[in-house]
Write a structure and sequence with these properties.
Largest sheet: 4 strands, mixed
Number of strands: 6
Helix content: 10-25%
Distance between the termini: 66 Å
Number of helices: 3
Strand content: 15-25%
Strand order of the largest sheet: 3-2-4-5
Length: 152
């Protein structure tokens, strides 16, 4: 936490992702819905239309379909870092659920917080910043503005 009261961190890669090949951070996604409830209509449509396409696009993500007698349909996303996010999909259309699943797939599981700087290094330079007089030979002496002494 900073003095502003909002959490912040330096920009970093999740589990060094991108150093080698890209690894999708979403490990498991579960769709929990009711077979009969009206609030689960969009979830049932998504299962019929879009869940197979999602599974083909994301072979590294396990998709669970759980028909349970529940009043509130939801999506539970589990990430590699152990984070579990639960999204309620009551009265959403198949397209809205597809967009939500895509958003959950693209996220890393970390909370969305303020980034302190858009760059960060683990080994900062100890030499300091460069300026025009960095490599100037000391024998050249100090440069001074011309004086108006005409008496000499």
């Amino acid at each position: 936490m900073t003095g502003r009261g909002t959490p912040s961190r330096f920009l970093q890669s999740v589990l060094q992702n991108g150093v080698g090949r890209y690894v999708c951070q979403l490990k498991r996604i579960s769709l929990i819905f009711s077979k009969n409830a009206q609030s689960s209509l969009g979830a049932r449509n998504f299962i019929e239309e879009g869940v197979v396409d999602f599974a083909k696009k994301n072979p590294g993500t396990v998709v669970y379909i759980s028909p349970e007698p529940c009043r509130i349909p939801r999506i539970v996303a589990e990430y590699l870092n152990g984070t579990v996010k639960e999204e309620v999909i009551t009265s959403k259309t198949s397209l809205q659920i597809s967009e939500l699943v895509t958003k959950l797939t693209d996220q890393s599981g970390l909370d969305i917080i303020r980034i302190r700087k858009p760059y960060h290094t683990d080994s900062p330079s100890i030499q300091g910043q460069w300026h025009p007089f960095t490599n100037r030979p000391p024998a050249a002496g100090v440069i001074r503005p011309p004086s108006d002494d005409t008496s000499a």
